[in-house]
Amino acid sequence: MKHALTLLVGLLSLFPCLAQPQTGASTSAANATNDLPNYSRHKKNDFCTTAPTSEWMAEDEMKLLVLHRGYRIKTFKVSKTNCYEVYGFNREGRIVEAYFNPVTTRLVLQNIAQ
């Protein structure tokens, strides 16, 4: 089961078209991504923040907030795009990959298994 979850979450990261981003994503952080190489799969709107980590919400507090929002966390980490990245399950019990802005705590991107 754990291997199947890892495989499914990996596949979900390859299909960003399944994402359901929250409206009102930060545009100031997205404008600062011009230094990404052309071969990167990350788009400008995939960036969460350029704020220093001293302004980020603490990881433990963010985990509690994510749990309060109805997610069950299997893996929690900082992504390459300066987001808090959560792999686990949503309220409906579906496998989810979610990215949260560590400064504003807003949901930026979410991939849900079909």
Characterize the structure shown.
The protein is α+β, with helices and mostly antiparallel strands and 114 residues long. The chain has one domain. 25% of the residues lie in helices and 22% in strands. The chain is built from three helices and four strands; from the N terminus they run αααββββ. A four-stranded antiparallel beta sheet has the order 1-2-3-4. The longest helix is centred in the N-terminal third of the chain and has 13 residues, at 2-14. The chain is globular. The chain starts with a helix and ends with a strand. The model is unreliable at 14-42 (pLDDT under 50).
Short précis:
The chain is an alpha+beta fold and 114 residues long.
